[in-house]
Amino acid sequence: MNGGNDMPKGSPERTERRKCEILDACEKVYKAQGFYGVNIKEISSEVSLTRPAIYNYFETKEEILLGLLAREYEIWCGQLEKIIPTACGYTAETLSEKIAHTLENKEILLRILNMNLFEIELNSRVERLAEFKKLYLRCITALSDILRAYKPDVTGMECEDFCNSFCALLFGVYPFAFHTEKQKEAMKLAGVKFREPTIYQMVYKSLLKLIPNK
Fold it and tell me: Where are the alpha helices (DSSP H) in the chain?
């Protein structure tokens, strides 16, 4: 194992394909087994790379998960940025719908944010973490630009409050939208009433309260 200090040989395109292959395998294992089921051995069994070869691309399993989260964020950023040019003509309801739709299929992103981000950041190199934070900043910028396009007279403080509140909301969506069978059984035994709203429903209703009126 070289600890990720030596770059793998080959073209940038080949390197990117290998990384994508590793991230795809990580996503498959994470969906099936969760954070504690993800390890280099399991990932290597899903790809055409040996365990030592994987370390050429990622130093720890947490860095692979960080790469997976970054990929999800990059997709989300692109979807948010497409809203900006037309946001000026939207009502609060329509804007809430548009933003909520960008997250309705982001189960992996929301699950990692809620359950595993602390451990992932703790065990990733600072330069890899900085790469992810740049994507986070890009999303915050897109959200601010959407709000400014929707309401040109919005203040900087209103933008900041909106982004902070919305990002805090994202950390709590997953556990309300998804329950394990054990959690359901425990809540029934405890007499706790619960529903399982969709990601879209939760985000849409919350955005209606966060987006200022024109």
Answer: 12-33, 40-44, 51-54, 61-83, 92-103, 107-115, 117-122, 126-150, 156-177, 181-190, 199-210
